[in-house]
Amino acid sequence: MKSQDTHNLKQTLAEQLQISAHEINYRKKLLGFTQNDVNNLLAYKPIIVKHIDGIIKNFYDFMTSFSEVSLIIGDAETLRRLSSAMHRYVLDLFDGVYDENYVNKRLRIGLVHNRIGVPPELYMSGIYHLQSNLDNTVNMYSLGDAKNNYATSLGIKQAIHKILMFDMQFVLDTYFSRFINQANSAREELKIYTESLEKTIDERTKELENLSMQDMLTGLYNQRAFFENLRREISTAERYKESLVLCYFDLNGFKAINDKKGHQAGDDLLTLVGKIVKASLRDADIGCRYGGDEFALILPRSSVESAETLTKRLIENFEAENMLGVSFSMGIAATGPDDFVSHEVLLKTADTEMYKAKEKAKKRRGFYTSAVHVGA
Fold first, then answer.
1. Which structural domain range is residue 291 located in?
2. Residue 37 and residue 96: Cα distance in Å, rounded?
């Protein structure tokens, strides 16, 4: 660490921030800062020298009208020293030499402002008002005859704007650099502190995520997870132009079990349904408990035909268990691969189809399905 500090002491600020002569010229080019701008600034320097005291006074009269600026400055002696520094800063703008030495001065300004607690937004507002003062000076004291007055004034003001923007880039570089260094230092401290806790935190996070997405009774995804998965799977299917199927079903005869045998018997039955659903799905399929005795199955890369195959598998697994006479009515809604509907429309369609199947179950007990393919 000490060797790094010693190395930094031997470098200029520009070298520490890896700002080369090539980088300086590149930034001038980005701003369109040309020799013509340099000439304009040099030509206007005598007028600036003549009116510099008024420019600085107007600048600080305005800036100290803000309480946060007055608090940072603190006293008359500090204001005097700041005014003297601003005097030099403004004259440097019109010197015509904008090399590495000039850039190091600008970086030093940023470093000092950063250390005394001037936030970036306050510094930027100061530069804006300095620009306004310089613009007003150009408006009042022009070069050349009246005929060329407008074009000359415009050229000078544009050159002033460019050099101030050029300066601001380097000042903000020092702010960003310090923020990054502080963040890196804090990150290292945090890393040391959290290494021993990382495994435990990761495990707890996963547990909480699973709990927030899982229906505790059936072990399937809950309604919140259902919507997240459905939106994601529709988006994926649309991206890869694949079909997607949503199966929505509820249990026929479940209410009677709850009423006659009690809620514990109903809960046991729902737990069994969760087990059957898990056993019936492919690895890519997503089983969810929507709520109550309603369930939803998201089948990526599927068709109505493959959903009906799944339905047969579900029926076989229902019949293999003691379901106390409970069956299901299922609505099947497919979308894609070319035209897709939103997750709301797909769910509403599957729900409508489920009620069509339920009408059949009212006439005759058993397992019933109703399917449809929907597009945009």
1. 209-374
2. 9
